[in-house]
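Subject: two folds for Thursday's group meeting

Dear M.,

Sorry for the delay on this. The cluster queue was jammed most of the week, so I only got both jobs back this morning. I'm pasting them in the order they finished. Each block is the input sequence followed by the predicted structure tokens. Could you check whether the formatting survives your parser before we put anything on slides? The first protein is the one we discussed after the seminar.
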Amino acid sequence: MNEMMTAKEVASYLNLNTKKVYQLVNDGLIPAARVGGKLIFPRSLLEEWLYNSARNNLRKETDSHDKILIAIGSNDMAWELLSRELIKTPYHLITTYANVGSIEGLLALSQRLAHIAGIHLFDPLTKEYNISYLSRYLSGFSVTVINLFYRTQGIILGKGNPKKITSLLDFSRGDVVIINRQDGSGTRILFDTLLRDSGIAAASINGYDNSVTTHMELAAAIGKGHADAGIGIQAAAQALGLDFIPLKDERYDIVLLNDYLSLRSVQTLLEIIRSDRFKTLLHGREGYNLKDTGKTIFEGVVGSRDS
């Protein structure tokens, strides 16, 4: 994973536009350095700033009339829709979402750095999603897990599939270069599981260590010809007119700390997720299944891994 990020990468990471990133830099609110006339952002300092901001926002939320929703975890374009819907409510709720991956999302919840984490973590032992990971990171916490949707993961390819890739086995070909998702993301965990199941060594794949933090970054790299393929969601391939080979339908859930369930921001989010409007907004985007959207998957105190 790159230690330095560009303004564009930071904007994608924080679900902001690039102009807002520059504004934060000018206001001295976000760490950056200028090299050769360009701004660069040390990832370690950016993550430290993000966590400190989360702590401060959670500390101030009572004074701000519960107008801030802090979410963190797995990347999906639906969070942009949810952010727009929340700001349009009579309460003008502000959403901050950091695309740090599913594992980092759960770790943030364990440190009370966020209200909600978005996760899609496949357990190769149980062949199920998400629930087994709660005991690894949130043992003893009272939580609620709610389904956001199911979505299709697969191989994103350049338009017309110029390298004639048909399966993961082609990833080990010498003429194929891939782009990967960051370590700790649910997509990376799924990819590594599929590679093991297929008997493919990561070391044999050109580009395995080249990673990005969002599905759209991955799709954009492929669309620009910087890579031939990568694992990502169907909606990202559709958005950029790229080819796609489906591999697996996965369950994407949100995990809530029950201490925050009564907050206006959290309750409003749940109302939006369970509304017909949310389903309408996602209608027409390929690779989403809303059969369990808004359904409670788990509620209660998380046990330990040994229990």
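Second protein, same layout:
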Amino acid sequence: MTQKRGKITLVFGGPGGSGSTTIAKMFSKHFNIPHIYAGDLFRKRAKKEDIENFEEFLQVISKGGNTLDLEIDKVMEEYAKKGNVVLDSKIFGALAKERGINCTATIWLDAKLGVRVKRHLGREDVKGIKRVLRRIVICFNLKKRYRIDKEKYKRLYGIKYSNPSLYYDIVMDTSNMDAQETFNLILKKLKDGKYL
């Protein structure tokens, strides 16, 4: 997917803990363009509706008609069409491909479940037995969220969520890389692949 020269639209996606948001922010800073995170748009709605547990909120809306998903994906599409933006969404890279929306490049990041759990746990200041319990909860939530997302995106858009290579220009496993190594490798792939 190529875009008119001069404007950059990068789309990052990946399951929780894959590093997609961290790397999207790094590219936003590198190119000095806005970072739009779909997760923030969902969180704002949860806050507006005074819902404290974000995981529960996502599960509730996934069982409904998913009008919020459609609204947020429309917002992402509008940003993509304007250009000069880094979009961070679990599904928008696939939607861009399906809808013929021009992007500089779409990047899907993944990591082994154990690594993703460890990354989530690293953001929390818990020790001892609480840490063990949190690890179990995080693992359970990540698995559940993946199943919900997979079913939801298939139902809403016919997207095969578990097969990102069908939709994304670059698909990478970040399990054995830190954020800087991941950023450097993606930047190299973007340049070598003449996306930039």
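Two things I noticed about the second structure. Residues 9-111+163-189 form a domain with the Rossmann fold fold (CATH 3.40.50.300). The beta strands are 9-13, 35-37, 85-88, 105-110, 170-173.

Cheers,
T.
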